[in-house]
Design a protein that fits this description.
single chain, 356 residues, alpha+beta, eight-stranded antiparallel beta barrel, five-stranded antiparallel sheet, globular
Length: 356
């Protein structure tokens, strides 16, 4: 298991923890050992469920227990998972979230099902190289997000989740057709000024979507009236022209934007990590997914995506007045490339459907 670094040290390397091991024997037989717990390797089992999926089971879960009971297990888990003691955590809401995570993860006793995930394919014109990133999520600690590009959109999909937004959900979406020009550094400190800029872009996006839907309805109406031959060809030119204009606009924004500009978080925006970059390359309008505990009442809310460099980006959640900082995972994963773009898109759809 690859664990993120201790919160909020997002630039630190991932931590490696073995969960099971397989001893290959003669005559195509093998023994499996569970590595979970603190009493050393013990008897386990692995079952191949279907292609790209397998399950692990511990046959001696008593090896996971500690003499001091659940309290000792919790304190040990807290030191390993969070790098701190319960006395270090003063925030009552954070204590509640951490306890929930311990109860949730410890109940499985290393009896888990694994499904293959692919790394996102990349193109030469991507804003930055797609891949896996560690991100700060307030009291939830650090989580793993997969950044992928889909035409005029970039998507951040949760690989690890929390009690509000589970793994598999699209945590952020970046609209590459709508770059945002930050105000000067003094005005940037004013949250209301940044909020005004982002909400203006949100309204522009809403109008464009409405016009596009109305245009589609009008075209369908003409088609039903038997005028398809007259409108089909111009409509195709219009669509291509619109896409070309948006793509050209994004490209022009990248070319005209300065290589770097000063950046500071607006006053009142909460950040787990104050050691964020003080310069950025580009910003785009985006939306972030928020929900109550148990993924109740999910909704997409406006925000701003900040590209710092090739390995770091940020997202300001306007409604939460919160900032997430993301740093690239630089571990090399073998045989993780998707066989095709379609296979990657299908995988994204499948992991999202498991949690909806």
């Amino acid at each position: 298991m690859y664990l993120p670094p201790h919160d909020p040290h997002v630039d630190d390397p991932m931590r490696f923890k073995p969960l099971f091991r397989i001893h290959l024997m003669e005559r195509k037989s093998a023994t499996v050992e569970c590595m979970y717990g603190h009493k050393g390797p013990h008897n386990g089992h692995i079952q191949i469920v279907k292609k790209d999926e397998f399950s692990t089971k511990c046959n001696q879960t008593d090896h996971h227990r500690m003499s001091g009971g659940r309290q000792e297990e919790f304190r040990t888990w807290l030191r390993e998972e969070w790098g701190r003691t319960l006395e270090d955590i003063f925030h009552e809401h954070m204590q509640e979230l951490i306890l929930m995570k311990f109860i949730y993860t410890s109940q499985y006793d290393n009896c888990l099902t694994y499904r293959r995930i692919y790394l996102p394919p990349s193109n030469a014109d991507d804003l930055l190289k797609p891949g896996l990133f560690k991100g700060t999520y307030g009291s939830h600690g650090l989580e793993i997000v997969m950044l992928s590009f889909h035409g005029k959109k970039a998507k951040g999909t949760k690989i690890t989740g929390d009690p509000n937004i589970p793994a598999g959900q699209q945590t952020v979406e970046i609209d590459l057709a709508h770059p945002i020009q930050l105000p000067d550094i003094e005005n940037l400190r004013n949250f209301n000024e940044l909020s005004r800029i982002v909400l203006e872009v949100q309204e522009q996006v809403r109008r464009e979507q409405q016009e596009e839907e109305e245009g589609q309805d009008e075209e369908e109406g003409r088609f039903r009236q038997g005028d398809s031959q007259q409108v089909e060809q111009p409509a195709q030119r219009d669509d291509a022209g619109a896409e070309g204009t948006e793509a050209a606009g994004a490209a022009a924004a990248q070319e005209s934007a300065p290589t770097s500009q000063p950046f500071v978080l607006p006053v009142g925006v909460i950040s787990r990590n104050e050691d964020y970059p003080r310069t950025c390359r580009m910003c785009f309008y985006g939306t972030g997914l928020i929900a109550g505990h148990g993924f109740t009442s999910p909704e997409r809310t406006p925000g701003i995506f900040i590209l710092f460099d090739d390995d770091r980006f940020g997202f300001i959640w306007l409604e939460l007045k919160s900032f997430s900082l993301y740093s690239r995972i630089k571990v090399s994963f073998q045989n993780a490339e998707a066989p095709s773009r379609e296979a990657f898109d299908e995988m994204l759809k499948n992991i999202q459907s498991m949690t909806t």
